[in-house]
Amino acid sequence: MIVVKKIDEAREAVSRIRQGGAAIGLVPTMGALHAGHLALARRSRADGCATVVSIYVNPTQFGPKEDFGKYPRPLEKDLQLCRDEGVQLVFCPESDEMYPAGHRTWVDVEKLTDGMCGAFRPGHFKGVATIVAKLLLIVRPDAAYFGRKDFQQLKVVERMNADLNLAVRIVGCPTVREPDGLALSSRNAYLGPEDRRRARIIPRTLSEVASRWSAGERRASELLLGLKERLTSQVDLLQYFGAYNVETLQEVAPDEPLLQGPVVALAARVGTTRLIDNVELGADPMPIKQP
Ligand code: AMP
Among residues 44, 138, 52, which one has the least CA distance to residue 87? Predict the structure, then answer.
């Protein structure tokens, strides 16, 4: 496995891999790798791609009061996990490599970033879209792999890829969960045992929504009935919880019959940890196991 820190080295390593005839699959991450990230790398390999993982805690997607400073950075452990997963190249740049002095260009995806996480994390998706655009332009992969846990991020990346004619195949991969249903996240490491126990309300709630959908319920008001109160009683702050159109990410009206399965998504703070999760009702209505 090749490990590089510089953009030029990354380009050179990719072009060498490409000369061997392989298609390139890129998995962008912020490191502190877990089974969710590794599933993306495995999918890339299963698709026949030589896999490039980027590890970069992107400062521009963190707000001033967010956890950029304390975000875990276990690089050696991450590199070993990548090696074990058959990754061919890891690109782990330093900040001044990605944002040198004088950097002035940003990618701003409109509308899709107004609601959901965008409403609570101003500038977050501008940071995400910019770094993903830069990574796609550096690596020039055939395909890039993203988790559906970050559903809004996936939609933003798909839109940006289309609007900037980057022509990368964007692949959204299923959310990998703990046995009790909690979505894996690098931030789960912040949860103490009591917070970890309370966090179980998140997958339980989404699982309940999925059961109602499977039972034939098609009104958002009924799909979500009583669940906001239950969530609020367990978490410390519920930022949003709603049903959203999967293309526009607009919240669906409570009593409009749903012809197309929405995504039901939420963000909540448990202790000091912000967690997000969602369930896509059309595609896969029962993906979350009830513990
Ligand atoms: P991050 O390191 O948090 O920026 O995540 C890097 C990529 O891994 C993103 O595409 C995430 O959506 C994806 N990811 C994070 N957690 C999971 C999970 N539990 N299951 C699947 N993909 C995930």
Answer: 52
pLDDT in tens, 71-90: 999 999 999 999 999 999 99
Residue 169: both structure tokens together = 């195949």
Partnered with residue 26 across adjacent β-strands are 52, 144
Active site residue 124: no
- Contact between residue 288 and residue 207 where contact means Cβ atoms under 8 Å apart: yes
Ligand 1 centre from 236 Cα, in Å?
Answer: 23
51 CB near ligand 1 (under 6 Å): no
Going by C-alpha positions, the residue among 63, 139, 41, 70 that lies closest to residue 98 is 139
pLDDT digits (tens, 9 = 90+) for 174-191: 999 999 999 999 999 999
Q: Which atom of ligand 1 is nearest to the CA of 183?
A: 19
**Is the CB of 157 within 6 Å of ligand 1?**
no
For the Cβ of 43 lying below 6 angstroms from any atom of ligand 1, the answer is no
pTM for the model stands at 0.97
Contacts 24+ apart (CB under 8 A), 92-95: 92/3, 92/4, 92/5, 92/31, 92/54, 92/55, 92/56, 93/5, 93/6, 93/7, 93/10, 93/54, 93/56, 94/5, 95/59
